[in-house]
Amino acid sequence: MADQSEQQQSKKDENNNEIEPAEKKSRRRFIIIAVVILLVLIAGLFYWHSTYSEDTDDAQVDGDLYQVSSRITGQVIKVYVEDNQKVEAGAPIADIDPKDYQVALEQAQATLASSQAAYLQADVNVPITNVSSRTDISTSGSAVLSAQAAIAQAQKQAQAASARVDQAKANAVKSRLDVERYTPLVQKDVISKQQYDAAVATDAGNTAAVLDAQATLLAQQAAVSQADEKLAQARSTASQSRSNGPQLVRVQQALANSQLARVKEAQAQVDQATLNLSYAHITAPVTGIVSKKNVVVGANLSIGQDLLTIVPLTNLWVTANFKETQLDKMKSGQNVTIKVDALGGRKFSGKVTQIGGATGSKLSLFPPENATGNYVKVVQRIPVRIDFTNLQQEDGDYALRPGFSVTPEVAVK
């Protein structure tokens, strides 16, 4: 029985020894397969990552730092902000004493009112001058016609006076002949003394009539000359009216235009004074954090003097310096996942906007000169701009700051 038991035990030990190597082989095979699968997955992940995406740890958040400066001179009378204070766009920062600029504005407004009144007067005179010149032209034309009619009338009257002179001379000649015939007859008492005296009186009257007719003729001839002078004067006046009338209108129009230019100049001075007055109240151009504040109450500011810097919280982007070997498949519009180190690896979404025009070393203050015998090829880096696509929703707590280190991953396929 003991021998049989030993034989059975020996058979069991042999069976166990046969089972143990099989289990060990199976376990070893499983481990090998698992390691191979893991290596394949790692290789596949590396291949996928290197083929379908590109990343770099040489990247940071960028933003426009706004230097708030004074646009006018003056003394600060109030400051509203402190360092590291968050301000909204349009929030007050400081006030400059506005009294001088208020006075300048009132003076400019007074000058504008005076210029507008002068322009109104000059502009009203334009149609008045136009009507007046037309009236002068019409009146001078009528004067010419009247002078011409007066000459014609004077000439007719002179002709009538000349005819009366001829008639008076004829009567005088007849009466003189009558006296000459009556003289011997009265001496011989053929005719009465009374008839002779009547003939002598008639002759004297006719002689006087000749003189009167000649004087009237001279007067009528003088009237003709005077009418000629008036016609010449009327024609000269009419010519001047036709020539000077439009010129006077243009002169008045030019004066109105000059006054209008002065109105515009005065309006520009009012606008400038209004702007200067508004510059006395300095406000934040964007929403951000106040930094480098160096303005205090009582300080006398000059134009362009820096007051503080505002670090923006919304208008941000990422500048990533990728190696030149990573840019083969990179282009604008590709989606980017941005991991921020300072926020515990918090991720943001973005897209490639621009690929830089030159390498960082080429844009440095002292670019490298490779025309030497000991040249060593170095992989260069190109700055790539990445814009956030949904910053307001992903950064609702305004946690991002310019200068944060990030790791962007660009999906190149």
Major sheet characteristics: 7 strands, antiparallel
What fraction, in percent, of the residue positions are helical?
55-70%
Q: How many helix segments?
A: 4
Mean pLDDT over all positions: 81
In total, how many beta strands?
Answer: 15
Choose one word for the global shape. Answer: rod-shaped
User: What proportion strand?
Assistant: 15-25%
Low-confidence stretches: none
The helix/strand series, from N terminus to C terminus, equals HEEEEEEHHEEEEEEEEHE
Class from helix and strand fractions: alpha+beta
CATH architecture of the domain at 101-278: Orthogonal Bundle
CATH topology of the domain at 101-278: Helix Hairpins
Calculate the terminal CA-CA distance, rounded to whole Å: 79 Å
Quaternary form: single chain
Strand neighbour order, sheet with most strands: 1-15-12-13-14-11-2
Pfam families: Beta-barrel_YknX, BSH_RND, HH_MFP_RND
Coiled coil: 144-171
Domain Multidrug resistance protein MdtA-like alpha-helical hairpin: 159-233
Domain Multidrug resistance protein MdtA-like barrel-sandwich hybrid: 67-311
